[in-house]
Amino acid sequence: MIESDRELSAMVQELWDNDINRLKPGKDYRISLQGKAGDVMALNDDNDGAGYPLFTYVDENIFKKETFLAFISLLDNYESDTGEPEIVTPEEEAENHKFLDSIIQTPTMKIAHKYLVEKHLSPEDETDFKEQLYRIWFELYARRGSSRPDSSGFEHVFVGETRGGRTVIGFHNWIQLYLQEKLGHIDYKGYSVNANSPQPDENKHILALQFSWKNGIKPKGSIFIGVSPEFEFALYTLCFLTSPNERVKVQFSFYDVEIVCHHYNQKHIGTTYPVLVKYQNHE
């Protein structure tokens, strides 16, 4: 492991250890993996590896916690079609700020901020740091094939978008997945594995999966499950600022993971998500 990855791994372990709002698998939520997702090229109903929803239970009291509440309020602020310009209302902007205000007070974000300041990658002043986060995550930009600002890092990663109506892009967040599944907008098709990937585990926090959303298909998505919004936000911001446009290898808890992180114009997050390389044998 190269030195920078080792240092980042230690940071991510610290974020993980301090993620006080993380849910416990089997207790706060339960998922049902069912079968393996089929070949995307042959997408038809016979190809569904899962007849039932992914989530069998989530303790929704968790969603009353401040950061979850603020996060969930952002999920309905977006037009999913790329190419449809986003109009950000003053109310939505206020919700974005409220979300940043709530997560910046959490242990995970405080740890990430302190580290980024030490590395001269973020301003020490909290207000300036929030402005930096706003630019990275919430400032709009035009995605490929669009001339108007129709996307943001937050929308892409946490909410999900559709391209050409048939393909789901982004959408790497379990809370959005759960809420959309509950509304009947998501059809979970099964978990994704290839020759090199480990078999998924219902009691672990990372899953590669296939699902359809609205009329589109996400052939293979990868998400953290049961973690808090502030953990993902802290982790992805760290990876973006320390090594944008790369695949960063980190090891923490049970996981050996690559965090894929692509920037847009060096200023914004294009996409970012975890890829499970293997399970560690120890806690």
From TrEMBL:
InterPro entries: ENDOU (IPR039787), EndoU-like (IPR037227), EndoU_C (IPR018998). It holds the Pfam family XendoU. It comes from the Eukaryota. The keyword Nucleotidyltransferase does not apply. It catalyses: ribonucleotidyl-uridine-RNA = a 5'-end dephospho-uridine-RNA + a 3'-end 2',3'-cyclophospho-ribonucleotide-RNA. Keywords: Endonuclease, Hydrolase, Lyase, Manganese, Metal-binding, Nuclease, RNA-binding. Residues 4-278 form the EndoU domain. The keyword Lyase applies. Its EC number is 4.6.1.-. Its cofactor is Mn(2+). It is an enzyme of class 4 (lyase). GO terms for molecular function: hydrolase activity; lyase activity; metal ion binding; RNA binding; RNA endonuclease activity. Belongs to the ENDOU family. Monomer. This is Uridylate-specific endoribonuclease. It comes from Myripristis murdjan (pinecone soldierfish).
